[in-house]
Amino acid sequence: MGRALMVVLGLSVLGAIAWRVMYGTNPVTVGAEGASQPKQQLDNVRGAAKRIEANDQKAVDDISKKAFGE
Questions:
Q1: Count of Cβ atoms closer than 10 Å to residue 40 Cβ
Q2: Are the C-beta atoms of residues 23 and 17 closer than 8 Å to each other?
Q3: Which of 33, 37, 56, 62 has the most CB atoms within 10 Å of its CB?
């Protein structure tokens, strides 16, 4: 009986830890201060992708100018 109780308590503690890791302590809310955190992260990723593409395009243009003498 004692072992079963320890197993149940151990699993409940592990479940609580997993829940906190996955969902955190603060619920995601959208308020007057702006967008939710996932939306902000997505916007950051989109901005970073645009910057990377612009840098790559500039590098390709520079190489093209050097190669073809434009």
A1: 11
A2: no
A3: 37
Give the sign of the dihedral formed by CA 31, CA 37, CA 42, CA 43: positive
Q: Which residues, including other chains, have CB under 8 Å from residue 70's CB and lie 6 or more apart?
A: 64
Ordered by start, the domain boundaries in the chain are 35-70
Asked whether the predicted pLDDT for residue 7 surpasses 80, the reply is yes
- What DSSP element (H or E) covers 58? helix 37-68
pLDDT band for position 24 (50/70/90)?
Answer: confident
Q: Could you tell me the two tokens for 17?
A: 């830890």
Beta bridge partners of 31: 34
Whether the Cβ atoms of residue 35 and residue 43 lie closer than 8 Å to each other: yes
Token duo for residue 45: 């990723």
Mean pLDDT computed over 46-60: 95
